[in-house]
Amino acid sequence: MDVDVHGAERTAAAPRADRVATRAGWGVFGGFAATGLALATLFSRVPAIREELGVSTAQLGLVLLAIPCGSMLALPLSGLVVGRLGSRRTAVATSLLMLAGMAAAALGFEAGRGGVMAGLFVMGLALGNQEVALNVEGAAVEQRVGRSLLPRFHAGFSVGTVAGAALGAAVVAAGVPVGAHMLVVAVGVGVFVPLVVRGFITAPQPRERRERHGRTAWREPRTLAVGAFVLAMGFTEGTGNDWLAVAMVDGYGASQATGAWALAVFVAAMTAGRVGGGGLIDRWGRVAVLRASCGLAATGLALVVFGPSTATAFAGAALWGLGTALGFPVGMSAAGDDPARAAARVSVVASVGYTAFLAGPPLIGLLGDEVGVLRALTVAGAMLALAFLLASATRPLSPRPGGTR
Questions:
Q1: Cα 346 from chain centre
Q2: Which letter does DSSP use for residue 203 in this model?
Q3: Is the terminal CB of the chain with fewer CB neighbours within 10 Å at N or C?
C-alpha cells in the first residue's frame, strides 16, 4: 500500500498553521483593544480635563495635539523599528512606553498644561510604533489565511473604546478624579499587552531590505493615495472620538455623562461595522463597500450636527460610527497587501493618515470657538467626500481567495 508521506505532512501542518494564525490574530485583537481602552479613557474625560486645566476649547485642542505630535514623530521611522525588532518586541516595548506616558499625564495635572502635554506626547510616541506593529502583524495573518480580517482586528480597538467610554461614563457619575482613572488604566494596559502578543509571527527583516523598502515606499503613487484615503477617514473617525462628547455638552446642553454615552454609541456602532465588515468586503470588494460607508457616515454626521434633538443626535452618532468603521483598517490592509513590503508601506500610510490626528483637534477647536463645536464638525463632511473619491486606491494588488477585490 502506497503512503502519501508529503500529503500527510501537509495535512498535519495545516492545523498547526491555523493555530499559529489564530493565536497571532487574537494577539492583534487584544493589542488593539488595549489601545482603544487607553484612548477612550482619555477621550471620555475630555470635558473634565478642560475643567481641570481651566482652558478654553481652542487651548484644549492644543493640549490634545500632543498625542498626534508624538505619533507623527514616531511613524516615519516605525517601519524601520518594526523591521528591526519584529512586531512582538515592538508591541511589548511600546505598551510599556504607553504606560509611562499615561501615568505621566495622570500625575501631570498639578504641573498644569505642560505636565499633561508631556505625558500625552510620550503616549503618542508609543501609539505611533504600536499602530504599525499591530497592522503589520494583522496583514500577515490576513495573507496567511486568505481572508479580510483587519476590520475584525480593529474591532478590538472598538471593543476597547466601548469599554473605555462606558467606564468613563460610570466613573464620571461616581465622581472619580480624572488622574486616578487614567493611572489605573495605564497600569492595566502595560501589563496586558505583553501577555497577549507572545504569539506574533512577523519576524525581523535584514537591515538592507528594510532600509531599501523604507526609501522606495515614499515614492509609490498607490501607497501615497492609500495614505490620503486613510487621512480622510481618520479625520472623520478622530473628530468623533475627540469632539463628540464635547459637542453634545456644548451643542445640546447635555450632561458630561450623556456626552460620554454618545461617544459609547459611536464606538459601539464602529465595533459592529468592523465585526461584520470583513465579510462584506470579501463579497463585494473594498471599493464598493468603502464608498457606501462614506455615504452612511455623511448621513450620520448630518443628523448629529443638524438634528433637532438629543435622540436624533444619538441616532446620527450610530450611523456616523458605522460608516467610518472600515476606513482605517481597510486602508492599512491595502498597505500590507505585499508582506515583504508591509512594514515600510504601513509606516508610510500611517504617517500620512495620522496627519488627520495632528490637524483635527486644533482645527475643530479653533472653529469651535467661532461657530461652536457642534457646527465645526461639518468639516468632517468634506473629508468624507475626499475619501469617497480616493477609495479606488485600496483595490488589492492581486485577488485573494474568497473574492476580495
A1: 13
A2: P
A3: N
Cβ-based neighbours of 59, under 8 Å, separated by 6 or more = 53, 113, 365
Which amino acid makes up residue 380? Answer: A
CB atoms within 10 A of CB 158: 27
Please tell me the number of Cα atoms within 13 Å of 27 on its side-chain side. 30
Query: pLDDT tens digit string along 169-183?
Result: 888 888 888 788 888
With cell 463585494, the residue in question is 284
Q: What is the pLDDT of residues 113-142, one digit of tens each?
A: 778 888 899 998 998 889 888 988 988 888
Instruction: With beta carbons less than 8 A apart as the criterion, state whether 74 and 124 touch.
Output: yes
* Domain of 316, in residue numbers: 5-394
| Strand, helix or coil for residue 198 | coil
Cell of 112: 498644569
pTM for this one? 0.75
Q: Using the structure block, give the residue that is written with the C-alpha cell 525588532.
A: 85
Q: Which helix (H) or strand (E) holds 298?
A: helix 286-306
The verdict on residue 35 lying in a domain is yes
Centre a 10 Å sphere on the Cβ of residue 18 and count the other Cβ atoms it contains.
12
Q: Domain containing 21 — which CATH number?
A: 1.20.1250.20
Is 400 within the bounds of a domain? no
- Contact between 1 and 129 (Cβ < 8 Å): no
In a domain, 401, yes or no: no
